[in-house]
Every structure is written in structure tokens, then in C-alpha cells.
Amino acid sequence: MSLLVVGSMAFDSIRSPFGEVEKVVGGSATYFSLAASYLAPVRLVSVVGADFPPAVIRMLGSRSIDTRGLTVAEGKTFHWKGFYEYDLNTAHTVTTELNVFRDFAPVLPEEYRDTPYVFLGNIAPSLQLDILRQMRRPKLVALDTMNYWIESSPGPLREVIDKVDILMVNEGEIRMLTGEYNLVKGARKVIGWGPSRVVIKRGEYGVLHLSDGTMFAAPAYPLETIFDPTGAGDSFAGGFMGYLAGRKGGDLADSDFRLATMYGSAIASFTVEAFSTERLQNLTPEDIAERLGSFLALTEFRV
Amino acid sequence: MSLLVVGSMAFDSIRSPFGEVEKVVGGSATYFSLAASYLAPVRLVSVVGADFPPAVIRMLGSRSIDTRGLTVAEGKTFHWKGFYEYDLNTAHTVTTELNVFRDFAPVLPEEYRDTPYVFLGNIAPSLQLDILRQMRRPKLVALDTMNYWIESSPGPLREVIDKVDILMVNEGEIRMLTGEYNLVKGARKVIGWGPSRVVIKRGEYGVLHLSDGTMFAAPAYPLETIFDPTGAGDSFAGGFMGYLAGRKGGDLADSDFRLATMYGSAIASFTVEAFSTERLQNLTPEDIAERLGSFLALTEFRV
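C-alpha cells for the assembled complex are given below, as produced in the milestone run.
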């Protein structure tokens, strides 16, 4: 089944202890779409400026990514400039130039409106709500957000969280959102609001996935070379939702969400091995299967 | 088989967001011995002052802990005073009163010298070396250390590390010790020095266990109430080494070290549920088996 993503497409300028790149392709919807495209057909909703390379849009379209929901607007593409220290878990922002993203108010193409799987990337909660209003009974909706919206837009954010199935945030965000330092208590609070699952992203420490009756902890893969963590969270989300959308079979069981978590982790572990989408866009199904096997070897024990 | 531990016994005065305690029983050898005593007979080497409660020594002796190597010296017991903020991964020291521990220079009882399993707790590297010199061909030796010794005693520390089988440290310590920020690279460097395994303790994020050809990642158990992380690392080490020492069967395989890691994690997860050794000293074999089962449920997935 297909999978709709709404989010940013951007140019990123990034400095890390391992190098520096200027205006490379990034953005949450870009990373998400590429990651998910290995597993399910994707419908992309985003906006870029006239300066965005048409070759990249063609590259996306040549995969299983439907770009009819991508608007090319007059003006410049969203540009994020930031850096990482050795602690790759913390991104430091230098500048954020919203450019064409400032007026982003997506109207879904008619044929997108009954997409069963939906990922609402990190954009204004009012826009996330607006997308949901345009959808017809999606089967599963996941949502990402960030500290900026938690502080500046708590009302609409809470309204949209209450309507989704899965909240995907990092540790700092769930603490800020719930006022609970303890992650288990925080997740329980969110589950009381409406979502049935909370996925807490912990960077190099992996992922904690909580539902009403179960907990699942997945490590990140201990890589020897991590170049650039940008896009890891969105690649994770893309692998996660891509697995669920692409899967054959009936109702989703807890074991499906666990395997989705591992697909997300596996694909995200490739993203950080290079700047931009370089590694992510050049995977084979064998690469992904092999990394899943490595994750199994990394976590397996017998009592 | 039996298991020798050398380390501190102490009074701890601790403040955390969840309460405050004054001069409760602590120390690395105390936590280690109690944790290991569920799984193997322990031989304890430490020193306390005349102010240390005889009832606690009797309690240790009433379990499978041999206290002939425990010296009761004139003077006061080692006293650590510290606090935790909400981030329970970081202990802030207020004062350290070494007291009788300042002159600790253990001479092993004759019947201790052929103990097959040895844990060298966090004490001066020169003392750790001295203990090793008194042992006859131990089967497996693990070592803990801390930033203080890495800075002040690099020569003797390196000498003792080269002689042990397993180095158990936290993330900051392996970085400081090896000059490598990346944990996989740091572990590889240590393995090049002599140890065959490196166990990296990451507090609430669990444990990363690396050997020459394998990696194993174990999460910490996501608890809803964590009162006091003091002693978690030593309880982990006690469960880990206790499992290996108590196990029946021939040569140790990688799967044994994995299960040892889970025993350590399970027992440590009880330690943090209360101040001091309160919870740790009141476990049943069923508690431990049940927690191991919970860890399996926490990490299991099928590809």
C-alpha cells in the first residue's frame, strides 16, 4: 500500500568533525521518501524553490516516489546551516532560511487523499492538522515534531497529536511535551491522549518503542565511521513506515511494529555513513537485508 | 566456581530528585558481592573502619560471600557524598573521605589465591597489579577503573589493563583512555593491548559489549521509577561475573558472555529501584528470572 509524506525539502550546509558540505540536498521529506522508497510506493508533498536541481526531482520520480504533490515555487529553497561537534546527537543551528517554505500550505492532489499510510513530518502543527483534514480515513498516521512547535504552538500540536496513531520524537522533545523526565511515564501520558504508540529516538543509543502493553528497545548500529547524522531520524521514520506500508498480510501485530523499528534502524544506519543522501540513495535490497542480519547478531541472546 | 572481588566498601550520602539518604552502606565491592552472590560463591577483599555495622558484615557472610578477606581497621569507613540531578547518568561528587581506604594494601588470604574468576574493582592500578601478582593463574579477570586513575596513574593502569581479559568502563572513560571518540575504534585499541573483551557501560542506555569479532548491545530496562543509580555499574559487573563463575560447562563461548551481560543488566535494574542495597539484597531467583524474561521481551524481533 502507498505511503504519503509531508515535510521539508531543503539545502543543508553542514560542518562536522569529519568534513564540511555546502548546500547539499536535504530535508525531512527527502530523507523519508528515499528511505521508504525501498519498501513501498511513496507520495511526496513538499515545496522547493526554482533553484532546486531538476535532476534530483527526476531521481526521486525514477524510484517509487510520486512527485505530483511537490510544488516548485518562485523563490529560493529552504536552507538550513548548522554544525555538529563530536557529540553527533546534538545539531547546532547557525541559520534557518525558510524561503519558499514560509508560505507552504499544501493542497493534496485528489489521488493522494485516500493514501492509507501517512507520515506528518516536522512542520507547523496547524499544517499537519490541515493535511489530516484533507485525508479520507487513513489506516495509520505517524507524526514528528520539534521543540520549536512544542513551545510556540502547544494548542494545535496537542490537537494533532490526539488524532494520530504514532508519535515519533526524541528524548528531549517528549520530556518537554509531557513535563515528565521519565520516558516511560512520558510515553504513558501521550498514550493517554490518543496515540497508541510512542517511538522515542535516542540517536546513537537507538530507539525506544512503547505501546500500551509492550516495550521494545532497539540499539543503533555501532558504526566505526559516522560522517553526518543529518536525516537519520527521518530515514528511520521512512524505513519504519515504509515497512508497514509495504508489508503483505492482515492486521498489524506488535511483531510488525518491532520489525518496522529494525527496518528504520537499518536504513538510518546507512544515512549517517555519508553526507547528504549519498549513501541512502544507493542502497540495494541486499544491503538492507544484510544490515538487518547484523542487527539480529547485535542483539540476540538466549536465556 | 568461585569469584574474587577487590574494591571499596563505603558509606554513601546521596541526594537525588527522589530523596536523600545519609551514610547508607555502599561501595563497589559491596554492590558487586551482593549481585554476584545470587549466582556464585564470592570471596571479598576490602577494608572498613570500626564504625562499619557488624550486622552488615554478618549479612554478607550469611550469603555465599566469604568475608575472610575483609579487614576491619581502626578508624573510619570510606565515605562518599554526592548528588544526582534528573540526569541520573552523571554523579556529582561533593566530598570523598578515604579514611581507612587510604592505606588499603590487601594481602590475600592463602585460600583466595587460586580463585578462578577475579574482578578488580575501581581502586589504584598499582593495587590492582599487586592483587594480580598474588593470584595463581586465574581463569578470567575483569577490571574497572575511572577518570581519576586514567589521569593520575596512566603507566600502572596500562600495565594492569594489558594483563586482564575484560575491561569494563563507561563511555567517557574509554574515550579518555584511548583518545578515540568513536567507541568501536576505542574498543579495538584496547583489544590490541591485551584484553579480549571491552564492556562499555552507558547507564540508562545499557551496555555495549565488544570482542574481536562480535558486538552485542543490551539496553537498560526502561524503569518507571529509578531512585538511585549508585552501585548500578558494580551490580552489573557482579551479575556478569557471577553468571560466568556459577555457570556449569566447558569453555566460555560468545553466547555465555551475552547471557552474562543480560544477568548483569537484570540485577543492576533492581539496584536502581531503591537507595543503597535495599532492593539488591532482597531478590529471589524468581525475581531475576522474571526480569531476564522481560529483557527478552524488550529486545526480541524476528526478521
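Chain A has a mean pLDDT of 96. DSSP finds ten helices and 13 strands in chain A. Further analysis is deferred to the final report.
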